[in-house]
Automatic annotation (TrEMBL):
Keywords: Glycosidase, Hydrolase, NAD. Belongs to the Gfo/Idh/MocA family. Glycosyl hydrolase 109 subfamily. Residues 143-309 form the Glycosyl hydrolase 109 C-terminal domain. This is Gfo/Idh/MocA family protein. Pfam families: GFO_IDH_MocA, Glyco_hydro_109_C. Residues 11-131 form the Gfo/Idh/MocA-like oxidoreductase N-terminal domain. SUPFAM superfamilies: NAD(P)-binding Rossmann-fold domains (SSF51735). Its cofactor is NAD(+).
Length: 405
């Protein structure tokens, strides 16, 4: 498949139209160059709601399938967005690539290293493309910071931090009632089950899989108390979430060592009362930025030993993608990052070119869940990180997030 004419609509399928998938589906309905012609979900009511969304938007009424395999068999579906439960993402992405589809896959943690390897080998064997739809890579602050890193304003990078810090006690505790898969992971897994939101910016800044890579990690998990306590107080002591043994520690910390000597600290913190934060920190030989507090300190520019607001720097070093986006009018979910992420994905589909966040990134980022589980299980023992590129990281030099959107 070569480059398509801009006047030809891209025909998509969406697999999984629960809360996240439906949000993406509704956003795709606003795009004039896209037709969502098929959806799949295990629940009939969710597919019905998606169909109603299409009717109200005056767009194509999609075919509906209980089985994602039936959707993949629909020949005119060119590409799929996978927004199903976490542990089904890689399985479906593999099947979609084997069916010749361009894949955009929502985030989460892998279930095994074996499936990560199969994901990579399927992409290499079929020539199909798979993009991890990590929307947080496309946020205004994140892209401004990346632009500053590329300009050398932080000097040589030494340490980065990222996190998923979000009070999800109600979502987790009510997971059975609301048919949300997150609860099942919390009941049975202990590690960083959702690593990619905080990892995207450090990985881009440090050129992971493009001249650098993760080589090892070590993780520790605190005790689990938050979900039980919240459920007992708000749902009653007899509620399942109040009585269940939650495996996932309330705060999981993971330290990653990179081949070029940098370290990355990741935090997963969703079971205690807190404000939302992705805990971003980018630190180099000339200064650092921290998301919490919206502050920056650059040697030679900032007052000695003092913080400055990041606001002025963000405007001065606005990423070109965001300059254009703001001129044309920001749209889409999560402050615009969802829209930009989907447009980057669609750019790859239209040109049949490698995506910004590719299959090697997807395998590496999602594997952190499995590796952190292993490390936690053995008291924080260092775990070696697989090289999913099989050495190609040494020679790869393309810039992540340099797409045309």
């Amino acid at each position: 498949m070569g480059k398509k004419s801009d006047s030809v609509k891209t025909k998509l399928g969406v697999i999984g139209v629960g809360p996240r998938g439906r949000g993406l589906f509704q956003l795709l309905l606003t795009m004039e160059d896209v037709d969502v012609i098929a959806v799949s979900d295990l629940y009939e009511d969710r597919m019905h709601d998606a169909t109603q969304d299409a009717k109200e938007a005056g767009k194509t009424i999609p075919a509906t399938y209980r089985s994602y395999k039936e959707l993949l068999a629909q020949a005119d579906v060119e590409a799929v967005v996978v927004a199903s439960s976490w542990t089904s993402h890689i399985e479906i992405a593999i099947a979609a690539m084997k069916a010749g589809k361009y894949v955009g896959c929502e985030v989460g943690g892998a279930a095994s290293l074996e499936e990560c390897w199969e994901l990579v080998r399927t992409a290499e064997a079929t020539g199909a493309h798979c993009m991890l739809l990590e929307n947080c890579c496309f946020g205004r602050e994140e892209m401004a910071i990346l632009n500053m890193v590329r300009k050398g304003l932080f000097g040589e990078l030494v340490h980065c931090q990222g996190a998923y810090q979000h009070d999800l006690r109600d979502e987790v505790a009510l997971g059975i009632e609301n048919r949300h898969y997150r609860i099942h992971n919390y009941l049975h897994r202990n590690g960083d089950v959702y690593p990619t939101h905080g990892l995207g910016l450090p990985a881009a800044c440090l050129n992971i899989n493009r001249g650098n890579r993760f080589i090892s990690l070590t993780s520790l998990a605190s005790k689990a108390r938050g979900i039980n306590a919240w459920a007992k107080e708000n749902l009653g002591p007899d509620h399942l979430a109040a009585r269940s043994n939650i495996a996932l520690g309330d705060v999981v910390t993971t330290m990653i060592q990179c081949a070029n000597g940098e370290t990355i600290l990741l935090t997963h913190d969703t079971s205690l009362p807190r404000a939302y934060s992705r805990g971003g920190r980018i630190q180099g030989t000339k200064g650092l930025w921290m998301e919490d507090g919206n502050v920056i300190h650059l040697e030679g520019a900032s007052p000695a030993h003092a913080w400055e607001s990041f606001d002025g720097y963000k405007e001065e070093h606005e990423h070109p993608v965001w300059q254009k986006f703001m001129q044309e009018g920001v749209q889409g979910g999560h402050g615009g990052m969802d829209y930009l992420c989907l447009r980057d994905f669609l750019s790859g589909v239209k040109t049949n070119s490698a995506p910004s966040i590719d299959v090697y990134d997807m395998a590496s980022w999602m594997a952190i869940t499995v590796l952190s589980e292993q490390s936690v299980r053995f008291g924080g023992t260092a775990v070696s990180f697989p090289d999913f590129t099989n050495g190609k990281w040494i020679e790869r030099n393309e810039d992540m997030l340099a797409g045309t959107f």
